[in-house]
Specification:
Layout: H1 2-23, H2 28-34, E1 44-49, H3 61-67, E2 72-78, E3 96-97, E4 104-107, H4 117-120, E5 125-129, H5 140-154, E6 157-161, H6 198-207, E7 219-222, H7 252-259, E8 280-283, H8 288-296, E9 303-310, E10 322-329, H9 340-351, H10 363-373, H11 376-385, H12 392-395, H13 399-407
Parallel strand pairs: 1-2, 1-5, 2-4, 5-6, 6-7
Antiparallel strand pairs: 3-4, 8-10, 9-10
Length: 412
C-alpha cells in the first residue's frame, strides 16, 4: 500500500509539473529572449534598470542584453539606489562605469533626473526594465516618464520590458495629483495606487499626453505572458529582488502605501531603521496597547494591529525606545491601504492630542507631506478635526474616473 501511494504521488508530480511551469509568469525580458531579441537586433541599446531587472533565474538584464548576439549595449542609466543597488535612499547616484560589463553608467538620480541629449547620443532605443511596487511616490515611474519625454525629443524609440504590479492590476486609491503638488514623488496626475504595470503606465502617459506637449516617443512594450490583473506578486512564481533597501519582500509593497505618507512626519517612526520597514507606527509617549485596541475597535477591513515596542538601529529615533503598533494586512484586496495611516493618526490624536504630529512639523515637512499625498487639501481638511471622514470625499473623488481612463490602456 505504501509503495502504491508513493507511485501515485510520483505520477501526480510528473503530471502536474508542466501545469506549474505553464502557470508561471514570464516577464518582458524573458519574452524578449524568446523572440531571440529580434526587436533589438542591429540596434544600439541604452538600458534603464537596477537589481530588479532579472530573469526568473536571477540573471541581470544588463548581462542578458550585453551577451545577446546582434544586440549592442552601449549605455546604462541608473535610477535612485544605483544600477547595481549600491546607493542608499535619497543619495545622489554618480556617473560611473559598470564593473561587470565595462559599459558607461549615466545617473538619473543626481544632477540630472532625465537623460540629456548628450547621454542619448548614439542610442537607437532606450529600454526600461525595473520592478516597481505600484505606488505613485516611488520614484521609478517618474524616471520612466521623464526618460520617455527625453526620447521623444531626441527621436529615439522607448521600450518597456513589462513586469507585474505587486499590488495587482485592479486596486486604485487616492486622489489625482494637483498641479501645485507635482514633484519627483508625484510627477503625474494619477492616484497614489494606480493599478497598472510599467508597460501599461507608459501607454497611459502617451495616450493621455502627460509627458508634455508633443513629447510622445515611439513606444514598444514587450508584454508578459501569464500575468492576470487579480494576481499579487506571490501568485506569479517569480523571485523577488528588493527594488530599494527598505522593500525587502514583495509583501512590503502593501505596507509602503499603508504608512509611507505618514513616514514624512519627523515625529513618528514607521519602522525604517528597524527590522520591518513600513510595518510599524510608533512615537515617544504612545502606549502601544491602548493604540492597538483603539485601532482594532474600528474594525477596518483587511487589517489588524498589535502593540509593539522597539529601538530603531539607525535613521529616525535611532537608539530610542518607542512604543506603538505593528500593522498586519490580513486581506490586501479588501483593505483600503492608503487610509490605514490616516486612521492611525486619527486615533493617535484622540488618545494623545498633545503630540500634534502634523501641526508640530515645520512648514517644509508639511509641504513634503502634501507633495507625497498629491493634494494639500487632504492635510488641511484632516487637521481641522483629525477625522478620516473629513478627507474621504477628497481621497475617493477621482477613483471612478481614473478607472475608466486606465482601462483603455490595459494589456492584460
Amino acid at each position: 500500500m505504501v509503495c502504491f501511494m508513493r507511485l501515485v504521488k510520483f505520477l501526480l508530480a510528473v503530471l502536474l509539473f508542466p501545469l506549474v511551469v505553464n502557470a508561471k509568469v514570464l516577464t518582458g525580458i524573458e519574452c524578449l529572449r524568446d523572440m531571440d531579441f529580434a526587436p533589438l537586433k542591429g540596434k544600439r541599446v541604452g538600458l534603464i534598470t537596477n537589481p530588479t531587472g532579472i530573469d526568473s533565474n536571477l540573471k541581470s538584464t544588463i548581462d542578458i542584453l550585453n551577451e545577446a548576439e546582434g544586440v549592442e549595449l552601449v549605455a546604462l542609466f541608473s535610477p535612485e539606489h544605483g544600477i547595481r543597488g549600491d546607493y542608499s535612499a535619497g543619495k545622489k547616484v554618480l556617473d560611473e562605469v559598470d564593473p561587470v560589463t565595462g559599459v558607461k553608467v549615466y545617473s538619473l538620480h543626481g544632477a540630472n533626473l532625465s537623460p540629456t541629449s548628450q547621454m542619448l547620443k548614439g542610442i537607437d532605443v532606450l529600454v526600461y526594465d525595473i520592478q516597481d511596487i505600484g505606488s505613485r511616490s516611488y520614484t521609478y515611474i517618474s524616471t520612466m516618464g521623464r526618460s520617455m519625454a527625453a526620447c521623444a525629443k531626441a527621436g529615439i524609440e522607448f521600450m518597456v520590458l513589462d513586469r507585474p504590479n505587486p499590488l495587482g492590476g485592479i486596486k486604485v486609491e487616492g486622489p489625482l495629483v494637483e498641479k501645485d503638488c507635482e514633484s519627483f514623488v508625484s510627477q503625474y496626475p494619477v492616484p497614489y495606487i494606480y493599478g497598472l504595470t510599467p508597460g501599461e503606465f507608459a501607454k497611459l502617459l502617451c495616450g493621455e499626453k502627460l509627458l508634455g506637449e508633443g513629447n510622445i516617443p515611439k513606444l514598444t512594450v514587450i508584454e508578459m505572458k501569464g500575468w492576470q490583473r487579480d494576481m499579487l506578486f506571490k501568485d506569479t512564481g517569480l523571485p523577488w529582488v528588493l527594488p530599494s533597501p527598505n522593500i525587502p519582500a514583495s509583501e512590503t509593497a502593501f505596507y509602503y502605501p499603508a504608512t509611507g505618507i505618514a513616514g514624512e512626519l519627523n515625529g513618528c517612526s514607521i519602522g525604517v531603521g528597524y527590522t520591518l520597514p513600513f510595518k510599524f507606527f510608533a512615537a515617544p509617549g504612545i502606549d502601544g496597547i491602548k493604540l492597538s485596541k483603539a485601532l482594532n475597535d474600528l474594525n477596518l477591513s483587511g487589517v489588524r494591529f498589535r502593540p509593539v515596542a522597539f529601538r530603531p538601529y539607525f535613521s529616525r529615533f535611532a537608539g530610542t525606545g518607542l512604543s506603538g503598533v505593528e500593522v498586519y494586512i490580513t486581506d490586501p484586496v479588501s483593505a483600503e491601504l492608503t487610509l490605514i495611516q490616516f486612521y492611525i493618526l486619527q486615533e493617535v490624536y484622540r488618545l494623545y492630542p498633545q503630540l500634534n504630529l502634523i501641526e508640530n512639523e515645520p512648514k517644509s515637512r508639511q509641504r513634503m507631506l502634501d507633495k507625497v499625498t498629491g493634494n494639500s487639501r487632504v492635510r488641511i481638511n484632516f487637521m481641522k478635526r483629525h477625522k478620516v471622514e473629513d478627507i474621504l470625499p477628497i481621497w475617493n473623488k477621482d477613483s471612478e474616473r481614473f478607472n475608466r481612463v486606465k482601462s483603455k490602456y490595459h494589456i492584460y
